[in-house]
């Protein structure tokens, strides 16, 4: 680490003083607390007067740099801001920041399908890389972690630049670099694939085939795994001399990111990338990500916190079809581009799911990517976890180790936390999708891990459906426990805004759609992206707004029926009554029979809390379905199920005249309920 002045390099002093400056520079523009600095500089063995010693280091650094202008008259400013210190540095005067920013611009050019611009920008970025960062601070964990992060970003730049060179027919310019990097990083299959293609173009078919065999044997020996489908495909293409291997057109190159035609840019794109702010990345890189940019910004902000060593847990909650999976997929794409590993686990809706299944899968996949981190785990943790993930304990078999006796067992929770946090010495994101189906043991571990990860580079993202997390007692307790932690937050995916509905409809139809039709689609879908796309797909050409009001696409109907089948019986009963009575009479009906066998009052409140029904704020006596589509599907199902229909209609009639004092009123109400069911 060097500070260069017009008159020469600045002498920074002993290693710990340089380490303090490095820590502040890594977090440039952000306050680093005194306690965090002491942990980073001395780790587990701070001196007796650590605060005073730290203050002396800062004071000497301030005197060194305060009166020393950089090139162009810029200055470094080191100030105290409670609860710690902050170093302000202009990005143009910090080579790491310039490197990250230029890589970000190169990756943005790649996404636009511009290989020439990509190659030029990433070549410029890689020229800034003079040596591995922080070699003089080896042994400081924070410096080692930052060096690993930057090296991952450099490798991403190397690979993307090589892909651009292959697309441009300039493979000979990157061939020596690819050979060197593939030797140092034999597990990066994308790198090996690019090397093989470049060797083949250089007339070295035999070398390309030997490289494949070497990689295959290395992965088998180190991981017990075979090569991936992309590398195998390139191998097969070389064997049969596929003409596409010699293609220099970025439209024809197989597997190339430059396969799509480039749209004509309408404005200069934002310079977004790993060095950009979360707002820049959400607004610039994700211009086509409609309606969820603010939520994406919050996830990216959590990622930034993780890179600073402030671990986060983020709950993403929304109804089925709200776009939870699409959101975390887009977030994962940006993480990968920034050089951060993302491990995703999907929880299946299985009643016989074994204890800790989501955590088991997450540990297994993260360990496969980071075998070096597995070796560094404490033996005690590996021994406890070997019953679930045998590869974490290579020295012993797991046959004689029974599963931990209870889901709340502290030793087991602590072992899982040690393993995941150990694997996160360089930033790691674990995404647990559909956690509403997780077993009770997995729920009990969630809050424990959230608390333990507060000072780590671990980001946990958990998605769940609104109704389950609002209604299931175990999920509600787990959610409450997690959100009590200061390093946890919840992102609620609500309905799309009308303007976002219009953008999605226009994109799906391929042309502008009138405001009346867009408004009808928005109302019919309730702002649910999945329902909206189903309606658009089922809409005939030339459709008008009135064609949408009663439209129930077959596929959407089947999906709704499947989801309703998983609801509790009392909730379904209230939904049936709501479908029959309509919004004006439901509130009174469920309150009147709240003490009866149906227990409808409590069920109605749960349905509202779970996002199935909604109370009209301007008229609290009105309760209606959040989604008209669900209301109509419930009515259609009642109409096709005779016994259930009679029961609901009888109940509805009784609700309209609970005292049964007037037989004529009862008959009229019963008849009206039947008509409502028969005519959805």
From TrEMBL:
Annotated OmpR/PhoB-type domain residues: 1-89
Pfam families registered for this protein in UniProt: AAA_16 (PF13191), BTAD (PF03704), Trans_reg_C (PF00486)
Keyword Transcription part of the UniProt annotation: yes
Protein name as it appears in the record: OmpR/PhoB-type domain-containing protein
Source species of the chain: Streptomyces blastmyceticus
Membership in a protein family: Belongs to the AfsR/DnrI/RedD regulatory family.
Residue stretches of biased makeup (Low complexity): 256-279
PROSITE patterns: OMPR_PHOB (PS51755)
Lineage, highest ranks first: Bacteria, Bacillati, Actinomycetota, Actinomycetes, Kitasatosporales
DNA-binding region: 1-89
Residues spanning the membrane: none
Keywords (A to Z) from UniProt: DNA-binding, Transcription, Transcription regulation, Two-component regulatory system
Superkingdom of the source species: Bacteria
Record keyword Signal present: no
Region (Disordered): 244-283
């Amino acid at each position: 680490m060097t500070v260069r002045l017009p008159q020469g390099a600045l002498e920074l002093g002993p290693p710990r003083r340089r380490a303090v400056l490095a820590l502040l520079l890594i977090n440039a523009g952000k306050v680093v607390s005194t306690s965090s600095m002491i942990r980073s500089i001395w780790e587990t063995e701070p001196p007796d007067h650590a605060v005073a010693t730290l203050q002396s280091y800062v004071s000497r650094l301030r005197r060194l740099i305060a009166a020393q202008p950089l090139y162009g008259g810029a200055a470094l400013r080191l100030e105290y801001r409670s609860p710690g210190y902050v170093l302000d540095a202009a990005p143009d005067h910090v080579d790491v920041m310039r490197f990250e920013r230029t890589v970000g611009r190169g990756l943005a050019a790649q996404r636009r399908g511009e290989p020439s611009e990509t190659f030029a920008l990433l070549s410029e970025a890689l020229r800034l890389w003079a040596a591995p960062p922080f070699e003089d601070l080896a042994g400081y964990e924070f410096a080692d972690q930052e060096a690993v992060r930057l090296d991952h970003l450099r490798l991403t730049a190397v690979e993307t630049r090589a892909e651009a060179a292959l697309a441009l027919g300039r493979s000979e310019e990157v061939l020596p670099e690819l050979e060197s990097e593939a030797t140092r990083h034999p597990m990066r299959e994308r790198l090996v694939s690019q090397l093989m293609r470049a060797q083949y173009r250089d007339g070295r078919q035999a070398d390309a085939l030997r490289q494949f065999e070497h990689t295959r044997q290395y992965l088998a020996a180190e991981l017990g795994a075979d090569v991936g489908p992309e590398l195998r495909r390139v191998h097969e293409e070389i064997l049969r001399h596929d003409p596409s291997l010699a293609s220099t057109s970025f439209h024809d190159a197989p597997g190339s990111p430059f396969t799509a035609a480039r749209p004509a840019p309408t404005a200069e794109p934002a310079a977004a990338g790993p060095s950009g702010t979360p707002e820049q990345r959400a607004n610039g890189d994700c211009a086509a990500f409609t309606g969820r940019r603010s939520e994406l910004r919050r996830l990216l902000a959590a990622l930034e916190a993780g890179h600073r060593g402030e671990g986060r847990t983020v709950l993403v909650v929304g109804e089925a079809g709200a776009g939870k999976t699409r959101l975390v997929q887009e977030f994962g794409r940006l993480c990968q581009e920034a050089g951060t590993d993302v491990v995703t686990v999907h929880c299946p809706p299985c009643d016989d799911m074994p204890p800790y299944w989501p955590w088991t899968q997450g540990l297994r996949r993260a360990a496969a990517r980071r075998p070096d981190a597995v070796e560094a785990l404490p033996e005690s943790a590996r021994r406890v976890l070997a019953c679930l993930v045998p590869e974490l304990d290579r020295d012993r078999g797991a046959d004689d180790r029974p599963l931990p006796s209870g889901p709340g067992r502290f030793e087991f929770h602590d072992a899982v936390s040690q393993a995941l946090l150990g694997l996160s010495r360089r930033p790691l994101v674990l995404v647990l999708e559909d956690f509403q189906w997780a077993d009770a043991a997995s729920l009990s571990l969630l809050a424990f891990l959230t608390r333990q990860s507060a000072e780590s580079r671990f980001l946990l993202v958990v998605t769940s459906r609104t109704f389950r997390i609002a209604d299931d007692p175990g999920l509600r307790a787990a959610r409450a426990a997690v959100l009590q932690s200061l390093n946890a937050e919840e992102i609620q995916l609500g309905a799309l805004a009308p303007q976002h509905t219009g953008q999605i409809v226009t994109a799906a139809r391929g042309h502008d759609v009138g405001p009346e039709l867009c408004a009808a689609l928005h109302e019919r879908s309730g702002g649910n992206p999945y329902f909206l796309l189903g309606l658009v797909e089922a809409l005939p050409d030339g459709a008008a707004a009135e064609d949408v009001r009663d439209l129930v696409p077959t596929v959407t109907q089947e999906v709704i029926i499947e989801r309703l089948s998983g609801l509790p019986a009392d909730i379904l009963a209230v939904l049936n009554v709501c479908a029959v009575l309509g919004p004006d009479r439901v509130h009174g009906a469920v309150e009147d029979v709240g003490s009866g066998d149906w227990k409808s009052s409590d069920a109605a409140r749960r349905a509202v809390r779970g996002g199935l029904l909604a109370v009209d704020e301007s008229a609290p006596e009105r309760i209606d379905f959040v989604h008209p589509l669900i209301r109509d599907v419930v009515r259609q199902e009642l109409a096709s199920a005779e016994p259930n229909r009679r029961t609901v209609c009888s109940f509805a009639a009784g609700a309209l005249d609970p005292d049964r004092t007037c037989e004529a009123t009862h008959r009229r109400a019963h008849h009206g309920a039947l008509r409502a069911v028969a005519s959805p």
